[in-house]
Amino acid sequence: MRTGLLGGSFNPAHGGHRRITLFAMDALALDEAWWMVSPGNPLKTQAGMAPLAARMLSARAQARRAPIRVTAIEREMGTRFTIDTLRHLKRRYPKRDFIWLMGSDNLAQFHLWRDWRLIARAMPIAVIARPGYDAAAMTSPAMAWLRRYRVPAASLRKRGRWSAPALVFLRFDPDPRSATARRKARPDWAAAYAGASPRDAVTHRSISDDTAQGSRV
After folding, report:
1. CB 105 within 8 A of CB 128
2. For the ranges 98-102, 125-129, 131-135, which has the lowest average pLDDT?
3. What is d(CA 76, CA 171) in angstroms, rounded to the nearest whole number?
4. Is residue 27 a contact partner of residue 153, using CB atoms and an 8 Å limit?
5. Do residues 177 and 16 make contact, with C-beta atoms less than 8 angstroms apart?
6. What is the DSSP letter of 48?
7. What gap in Å lies between CA 49 and CA 63, rounded to an integer?
8. How much of the chain exceeds pLDDT 90, in percent?
9. What is d(CA 88, CA 82) in angstroms, rounded to the nearest whole number?
10. In a designed cystine with 130, which of 78, 103, 121, 152 is the match (CB 3.0 to 4.6 A)?
11. Which residues contact 45 (CB under 8 A, 6 or more apart)?
12. Could you count the other beta carbons within 10 Å of the beta carbon of residue 161?
């Protein structure tokens, strides 16, 4: 089972998340994708961060009728850093081939993530172009190291076990939608999900509050 991992706050999820995920799935011949909704991101301010349950429900609405699972599995595993999350996932699901999906905005600051080189060695990385971030991503300290491992998307479409490090760039028509714009347009969006307890599509556990903290670094 080839599975793409897209992590983020999803505060809220929007059509851009769905579009880039489906594009990546098609480009890389993935079987499904997991949206890993982070309980907390040390690189982002918590001001204005909606409850985890609301963010998961917004993601579920965007993932409807698509091979995308919405999960807050970091909460259950108790991992704080992405490298620990990925190690847990590989041990827990040894029959899956994972690929890390991220926007070029994340690549621009990837060198700030804990053990980012080990993340690159843990599984292939697919970087999806985002308007306004490509130049910073291509000149980032992480890219200076990752450039030697760049491969074409066609090489990852082939069946068989993936190797890492491997970096692929996926380019398509830019999607201008953003969670920031959605919040500005509708600051009270999370109120519609108040009191709800969504079920995690991977762990099958109910999510009701933000008592646990996770990561996206």
Report:
1. no
2. 131-135
3. 34
4. yes
5. yes
6. T
7. 20
8. 65
9. 10
10. 103
11. none
12. 5
Quickly tell me which residue has 């491969």 as its tokens. 151
Q: Which residue has the tokens 């490090």?
A: 165
Taking Cα atoms as reference points, which of 3, 27, 22 lies closest to residue 154?
27
Sheet holding 2-8, edge to edge: 68-71, 32-37, 2-8, 97-103, 125-128, 167-170
Range of weakest confidence among 18-22, 29-33, 76-80, 141-145:
76-80
Distance CA 42, CA 213 (A): 10
pTM to 2 decimal places = 0.90
Tell whether the model's pLDDT for residue 192 goes beyond 80: yes
Cα 131 from Cα 174, distance rounded (Å): 6
Give me the phi and psi of 126, to 5 degrees please: -110, 125
Mean of the per-residue pLDDT values of the chain: 89
On whether the CB atoms of residues 18 and 66 are closer than 8 A, the answer is yes
CB atoms within 10 A of CB 110: 24
Q: Is the confidence at residue 181, as pLDDT, over 80? A: yes
Compute φ and ψ for 95, nearest 5 degrees: -90, 0
Residue 42 has pLDDT above 60, yes or no: no
> Which DSSP letter does residue 110 get?
G
CB 126 within 8 A of CB 170: yes
- The encoded tokens of residue 184 equal 């500005």
* Three-class secondary structure of residue 153 per DSSP: helix
Find out whether 127 and 137 touch, Cβ atoms under 8 Å. Answer: yes
